[in-house]
Amino acid sequence: MRRTLIVANRTASTPVLLQEVERRAGERPTAFTLLVPDPTPENWSLDDAVATLRTAAAGIHGTRAAQVDGLVGGSTDAFESIRAAVAGGGYDDIVISTLPSRTSVWLRRDLPSRVEALGLPITVITPPTSHGFSLFSKGPGSHESGR
């Protein structure tokens, strides 16, 4: 079974991420772990985000077995939380779901490039901007590295 680490805060239930989870789960059996580096927003919970991702992984008819769990980061630095998770998790790849480039602290701090140095393939997903374009060119809202 493939193991995918999903890194997200406020974007954990955006349609573009849910579609990516559904697509991956449909391609092959995949266990997802949602890592939330900073779970402080009061109107949001890790349990809610995991439940939403579990529903997406189960597919449109809800019939696919969906293995999704959650993990809260141990550092205020998203990269350090990811590094620690990768060191102990046996993941095959990483999905980083972040805000659009104009508001994303993670993109301003070049988190995707830093995470690529960990040696796993990564996919970066950003919600489409109001104009329908994303920072990355693989399609609206996503970019993949090919490690």
Automatic annotation (TrEMBL):
User: Which InterPro entries does its entry note?
Assistant: Rossmann-like_a/b/a_fold
- The protein depicted here goes by the name Universal stress protein family protein
The species is Solirubrobacter pauli
